[in-house]
């Protein structure tokens, strides 16, 4: 295990930002710290970097107790959302900076910088100033600079957070490929579940200063530990007492068994390649079902139709927190809005 975090606690005044957090982050993998804003992800990353001190607990990096080491002794590379480049220096000199202050020989620096610029596909921009780069190119430069000194661990705090959706997506794919080439232990913070599911080998879900679940994207998606993880990873709806994903519900115009739940279609909405069907059950529970366009056409549904619902066998479900009828609707709206 490359990074061992054991019993780490951190308060800011009365506020508990991290509550007795323990996690092992594997060597050579890409690990995402995922969770809602304010959950403690950045605080944990900053504690690993040595930019913040834990009140309790220990941090070990590659077998070395780093708890009391200053950031520069931890051999970590760090990239923030808003990367502070040296504005008056060329891309090449920005990337070379860490090697120059370590007084590496000139020829070694030149060779390493060329290698890195090639790795991040910025060779042709080597002599530009940071202001002459796009946001995505600037973040790639930041990564090259962080990698220059061959860190043991690369820490990324929402590195693509400030970029538009399309560039974000490109950089995500690029980060995955870069990581496969360099294989440096990488930890990145994100609040975007899609980003974590797509890029990470391992995901640590953090909420309210505590770890909700640790696992591979498949573990989290197929076996969510609780309804928080289930809700956080994508749209959910409720059928009876089960929280389930809307595409894991089966819908038919004829009943298929005694466990079917009967309801009436109240609304049909097309969302890209999916069709969302709003159903109200005979007990008054609002349920969302999503089907593909072809499935929808085969069903031949219209508003007002009677339908029968069931959870597809083997689908992940969690027990829905019991809610009074008055708040069930509000819960449902929240789930619906994330579709
Ligand atoms: N230096 C500080 N002083 C006081 N409170 C802080 C400090 N740093 C963080 N916090 C608080 O600790 C909590 C956790 O913050 P943190 O930045 O770790 O969350 P996060 O999960 O990374 O969220 P975000 O994605 O919004 O950055 C927040 O409520 C934040 O306001």
From TrEMBL:
Transmembrane spans: none
GO CC terms: ATP-binding cassette (ABC) transporter complex
Keywords for this protein: ATP-binding, Cell membrane, Membrane, Nucleotide-binding, Sulfate transport, Translocase, Transport
Pfam family for this entry, one: ABC_tran
Molecular function (Gene Ontology), one example: ABC-type sulfate transporter activity
Region (Disordered): 316-339
Ranges of compositional bias, category Basic and acidic residues: 330-339
Record's protein name: ABC-type quaternary amine transporter
Keyword ATP-binding: yes
PANTHER family according to UniProt: SPERMIDINE/PUTRESCINE IMPORT ATP-BINDING PROTEIN POTA (PTHR42781), SPERMIDINE_PUTRESCINE IMPORT ATP-BINDING PROTEIN POTA (PTHR42781:SF4)
Compositionally skewed regions (Low complexity) per UniProt: 316-329
Domain of life: Bacteria
Domain ABC transporter residues, every copy: 3-233
Organism: Dactylosporangium aurantiacum
């Amino acid at each position: 295990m490359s990074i061992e975090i054991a019993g780490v606690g951190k308060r800011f005044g009365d506020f508990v930002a991290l509550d007795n957090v323990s996690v092992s982050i594997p060597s050579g993998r890409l690990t995402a710290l995922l969770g809602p804003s304010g959950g403690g992800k950045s605080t944990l990353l900053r504690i690993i970097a040595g930019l913040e001190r834990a009140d309790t607990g220990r941090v070990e990096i590659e077998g070395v107790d780093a708890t009391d080491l200053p950031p520069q002794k931890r051999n970590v590379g760090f990239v923030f959302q808003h990367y502070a480049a040296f504005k008056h220096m060329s891309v090449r000199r920005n990337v070379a900076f860490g090697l120059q202050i370590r007084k590496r020989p000139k020829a070694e620096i030149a060779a390493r910088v060329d290698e890195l610029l090639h790795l991040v596909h910025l060779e042709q921009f080597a002599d530009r100033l940071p202001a002459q780069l796009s946001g995505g190119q600037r973040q790639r430069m930041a990564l090259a600079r962080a990698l220059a000194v061959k860190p043991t661990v690369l820490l990324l705090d929402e590195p693509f957070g400030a970029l538009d959706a399309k560039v974000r997506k490109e950089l995500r794919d690029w980060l995955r490929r870069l990581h496969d080439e360099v294989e440096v232990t990488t930890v990145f913070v994100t609040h975007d579940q899609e980003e974590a599911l797509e890029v990470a080998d391992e995901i640590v879900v953090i909420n309210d200063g505590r770890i909700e679940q640790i696992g591979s994207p498949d573990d989290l998606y197929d076996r969510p530990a609780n309804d928080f993880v289930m809700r956080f990873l994508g749209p959910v709806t409720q059928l009876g007492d089960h929280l389930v994903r809307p595409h894991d519900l089966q819908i038919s115009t004829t009943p298929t068994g005694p466990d079917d739940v009967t309801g009436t279609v109240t609304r049909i909405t097309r969302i890209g390649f999916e069709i969302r069907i709003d159903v109200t059950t005979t007990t008054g529970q609002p349920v969302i079902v999503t089907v593909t366009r072809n499935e929808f056409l085969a069903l031949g549904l219209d508003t007002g139709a009677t339908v029968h619902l069931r959870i597809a066998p083997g689908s992940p479900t969690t027990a829905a927190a019991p809610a009074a009828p008055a708040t069930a609707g509000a819960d449902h709206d929240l789930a619906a809005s994330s579709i």
